[in-house]
Every structure is written in C-alpha cells, then in structure tokens.
C-alpha cells in the first residue's frame, strides 16, 4: 500500500477513530451510528470513500478484536488507532490476513450508517 503523508493522516484520523469503534467487543450503543455518520458528513467523505477506508484501512487494523475472547470493549486511544492503522498499511510490519470482500465487515451497522449519512446530507 502507498505511503500516506502527515496531512492525509490528519485528515483520516477522525474517520479511522470513528470506524474503529465498529470493531469493539461490545454491543453498539445507539449514538454510534449518528456519531460515525456525522464524522463522514462533517469531513466531506463520500460513502464510497468512507467504505473504502473502512474496508481496506480500518478493518485490517481492528478485525482481530472480533476474534479475541476478551477483546477491547472500551475503545482505543487516538494514538493507538493511528499506530494500528499505519502498521496494517505496511505489509512489512503487519500480520496480513487475506480478507475477502465482506469478511469481518460490520454488516449490521454499515447500512444504518449509510442511511444516517443520507439523512444528514438532506438537512
């Protein structure tokens, strides 16, 4: 995967942090869908861009938490999100998993987030 400049990391961080919550080992509180949707809208991400970031940047960094018998449930610090996503982008420093198109995707929540983004953009 290509290198990411500091300005692009800064732009992506709010989205990375919001989407990482989809991989916590807990039931998703109702406020997470609008919170994630708000980040997408506020920061000018298209649905397609946000899904690409979810699928190919955040998911590879955090899917492991769904497999852990005692996974993280309280959330990650911003610096941990940054470190994990950047490590997952680096094939030399990351354990790679051949992720299929939908494996470990938060399929229950992503359609709700898309709907909420649409609602927010109509306001």
Task: Write structural notes for this entry.
Helix content is 58%, strand content 0%. With 123 residues, the protein is mostly helical. InterPro entries: DUF7079. This is DUF7079 domain-containing protein. Residues 11-97 form the DUF7079 domain.
Would you kindly provide a brief summary of this structure?
The chain is an all-alpha fold and 123 residues long.
SSE map:
Blueprint: H1 6-20, H2 32-42, H3 47-62, H4 64-67, H5 78-89, H6 110-122
Domain DUF7079: 11-97
Protein name: DUF7079 domain-containing protein
Organism: Sphingomonas oryzagri
Major beta sheet summary:
none
Distance between the termini: 37 Å
Count of discrete alpha- or pi-helical segments spanning 4 or more residues:
6
Structural class: mainly alpha
Shape designation: globular
Rg: 14 Å
Sheet-strand content, in percent, reads under 5%
Number of domains: 1
For the residues shown, what is the average pLDDT? 83
Low-confidence stretches: none
Helix content: 55-70%
Please tally the β strands and state the result: 0
What is the succession of H and E elements?
HHHHHH
